[in-house]
Each structure stands twice: as C-alpha cells, then as structure tokens.
Amino acid sequence: MSTLAHTMMTSARPTESGLAGPGELDRYGFAEPPVADRVGPPSWDGSDGELGRVGRRATGSRGRGLHGQLVQQLGQMIVSGDLGADRPLVPEEIGQRFEVSRTVVRESLRVLEAKGLVSARPNVGTRVRPVSDWNLLDPDIIEWRAFGPQREDQRRELSELRWTIEPLAARLAAGHGREDVQQRLGDMVEIMGHALAQGDGLTFSRADAEFHSLLIQLAGNRMLEHLSGIVSAALHVSGGPVTGCDRPTEASLAHHARIADALASGDAHAAESAMRQLLTVHPEVERVVPAPREH
Q: Furthest-apart CA pair in the chain: how many Å?
C-alpha cells in the first residue's frame, strides 16, 4: 500500500463512526459570545405555532458554534417550508428565540442571503425568497433538501445530474496523463478495498468521494471541476437504491477499479462505460437510466 493510502486508512477513522447527519455540520463556526452579549428570553413560542415548534426542536443541537448552528437551523426551516416564501425575518426576534447575539444573527443572515434563501432590502427588511431564487447547487442546500420533505426529489435530481456530469468527466479524464492523479485514484481504490474487507463504511465513503473528486479534476474542464462539490454532496446524502456508490459492495469496488484502469490506459470509451455501469441503479429498481418526466 502506498504512503498516501496508508495515511488515509489510519487517519480517516474518527472516534465516532458514521457520517455527519442533518443538523451536525458546523461550516461557519464562531465562538459562543459572552452571556452579557445575549438578548432576552425566547419570544417565538407565541402566536406562530409552527415557528415555535421548529425553534424548540432546533435549539437542542446547539453547541458547535452559534453562527454555524443558526445557519443550519434557519436554513433547514426555510428549505423544509416551515418558513415560507416572503416570510419576514426580524433579527431581534431571531436573537431572542435562539438566545444569540445580534452579531451572530447578522452574520448568519448574510450567509443565507449568499445562498439565495433570504433577501434584505431597505424599508422592506429581511424576507424568505422563493425556491426559484435559491442556489440549488449549494452543498448546504443540497443536504437540507435531502433530509427534508423534498428528499425524494433531491436525490432523484442529484442522480440525474450525476448521469450528466460523471460519464463525460470519465471520458475526458482518459485523455489526460497526469501520473500523480492517476496514482491517487489507484490509492483510493486500494483504500476502498481494505475498508470493504474490514467493514469500515466511513473510510470507504471518504475514499469514494475523493475518487470522484479526483476524476473530475483530471478531466481538465474547469466548469465540470466547479461542479465537483455537487458530486461530493450527492455521495454524502445518497439514500435508497439510487447508484452503485450508495453502499460499499464488491460490485461497486470492481467498477471503481475498472474506471481507474481505463483511465490509466487512456481508453476513453471504457472509462465512460464503466462510470455508467457504476451509476446504474440497483437491479431491484425498474429504471436504469433516469427516464424523462412528463410535465
């Protein structure tokens, strides 16, 4: 086993097994402010029953940075529909409900505005934006949708998008002879094999995500590379019988190995074909390639 593979095998296992679930990510972590910087008691438990209900459920997972927690909770509430389009968001009320400072609320709303979930305008205030304005390719929004009421639509859309992106990336990557990346692809397959043998699903999934990210990088198309985050998000939120990457299996490992071999030999057709086989849904599901939908 190469040095890189050995390092990844030994460092990829955290003390807690399993991937982060909904509400567990902290991409925007801020230190918790002093108690004196907090505002008064929660006030969203009154007339608005839905808002109070979601707020009580959300506050239980706080503790990984107030800024990241608030982004997560408000984002999930908006994406789930608990905070509907054009709903006004009053920073003072948010601060009171979640017991956080004005600075935390302000920075969290800025993050959500960058994702297209809210808008802030003079004399209008901050309001929830309609779905048509959301950045649906944002990894956070992908995850929030995948674990919310729209989970089936999100997973189907991700599967269809991967069918567009990855076979093309595999074909293009076969024309690039970057030995360093080729070696890393081989390392990922080796790691996945060891992880499968040991029943280590976490290490397998991390090597799997790295494999697909490297392949898109090797394609040499900057626009495709920009979409690599979508593939990574799809692998982390995948659920149900959607693709061959859903769970560690011998078949999945074999398809990854065939892709790596085809890339190493410069066989574009074989690489594309192997990727399509990997992305084929499991046999118990009728449709193999996502079928056109009637509108």
A: 66
Residue 126: its H or E element: strand 125-128
Assessment of whether the complete model's pTM goes beyond 0.70:
no
Distance CA 58, CA 69 (A): 9
Residue 147 to residue 22: CA distance in whole angstroms = 7
pLDDT in tens, 209-246: 899 989 998 998 888 887 777 777 777 665 443 455 65
Residues 6+ apart with CB under 8 A from 167: 272, 275, 276, 279
The two beta strands, 88-89 and 118-121, are unpaired
Strand pairing partners for 119? 127
CB 256 within 8 A of CB 264: no
pLDDT in tens, 48-106: 433 333 333 333 333 357 888 999 999 999 999 999 888 899 999 999 999 999 999 99
